Amino acid sequence: MATPVLPARATLPLVEVRVTELDLACLPEVGAVFDRLLALRPAQVVLDLSDCQHLDPAAIGLLLDVHRRLTRANAALTVRDPNPRVRRILHITRVDQVLPIGSEERSSGPWWPNTAGAAPPSPPGRTAARTAASCPPPPVARPWQFPAAGTGRADRVASMFHAGVMIRFVLNVLWLVFGGGLVLAVGYGIAALICFVLVITIPFGVASLRLAVYSLWPFGRTVVPKPGAGVGSGLANILWVVLAGWWLALSHILAGIALCITIIGIPFGIANFKLVPAAFWPLGREVVDVP
């Protein structure tokens, strides 16, 4: 749900939108809020994501659409204070390279986005009167509830999202049945079980289990470095490469090339190529969804 804070008048130098939920379920309502908001032609929109726990691909598509519309109107969209999970999603999807992302300084007064047209906060050392004069607060704001309504743009984003989800689902099912996904998952699962039984190889069992899950349903997911992975993961990966990683990665490369040569097997070849980095260097990584 989104509750924008708007001034009482229609000339808006700055609009703050607080979002607590931003996913496919509430996309039409949030899209309607943004449509009504953009109709007021604000110079800046600050999107507060401090209470938002997750962003799905449909929500990211909506944010990029709002950014595009604001850019055409010579306005700016800034994301403020996302939590670590949301910030990581923005980084994985490269949205942080498109939208400026800032943090709120709660102890130093109102936060100003670092975009054109905004009055920057005064440097430390100035008096309170000087700061107030050089950086006036935005107009007095009040909560403004927009009615929930459908929006054409949001509906198109949702339709594109559904189409992408359906394509990935079909590819994953075909991979599972005809591309060897089930066989790979079972093989990696058995390897994980053996590693768990031997106890000393439990880290390799975790890596094998991760490969089993990833190979079962690869489309729409990717492998990214895991925050906090240290030297131990790197050393274990070196041992993994020597014992199994090199030939597992090589087998996926050869299988991918063979499948791509058949033309009809290109999607399965891509799935094998996606498994190469996970099979070669699995520890210190995790599988995440991608838009």
Helix-strand layout with pairing:
Elements: E1 2-7, E2 15-19, H1 27-38, E3 44-48, H2 57-72, E4 76-80, H3 84-92, E5 101-102, H4 128-134, E6 141-143, H5 152-178, H6 181-198, H7 202-216, E7 221-225, H8 231-261, H9 266-280, E8 285-289
Which features does this protein show?
291 residues, alpha/beta, Transcription Regulator spoIIAA, two-stranded antiparallel ribbon, 9 helices, 8 strands, elongated
Question: Can you summarize this structure?
Answer:
The protein is 52% helix and 12% strand.
Written overview of the protein:
This protein has nine helices and eight strands. It is elongated and about 65 Å long. With 291 residues, it is of the alpha/beta class. Strand 2, helix 1 (27-38) and strand 3 form a beta-alpha-beta unit. 30% of the residues are buried. It starts with a strand and ends with a strand. The chain has a six-stranded mixed sheet. A two-stranded antiparallel sheet has the order 7-8. The chain has two domains: 2-135 and 143-160, STAS domain (Transcription Regulator spoIIAA, 2-Layer Sandwich); 179-289, no CATH class. The model is unreliable at 5-10 and 105-151 (pLDDT under 50). Helix 1 packs antiparallel against helix 5, helix 6 (181-198) runs antiparallel to helix 7 and helix 8 runs antiparallel to helix 9. The longest helix has 31 residues, at 231-261.
